Amino acid sequence: MVDITVWKDLKGNITGLEIKGHAGYADYGSDIVCAAVSALAETAILGIKKIAVVNANTVKKEGLVRIEIPEVMPEENRYRVNIILRTITVGLEDIAKTYPEYVRLVCKEENL
Hints:
With about 110 residues, the protein is α+β, with helices and mostly antiparallel strands.
């Protein structure tokens, strides 16, 4: 099971994203569910770094991707990060709806 957690602040800005586990939909190398989730995670990291120009704290290792957005940054950068992460989240939500036995997504609100 892939467990995805999306953290939001009280304004609705996405402040972090964590993806843990493996879908188990198919054998390693043939798992389209894991591949789809991984592609969106990689796209999020690249978009944050190259489009939003934000140095997010990221962790990437076997079975784990974590993205933590800095609290302090110019509003224009925050806007770009939020658009990128909201778009990625829509894709992840769709995967979770299509493959609910393999992907679970929850949103949590932070008190920042």
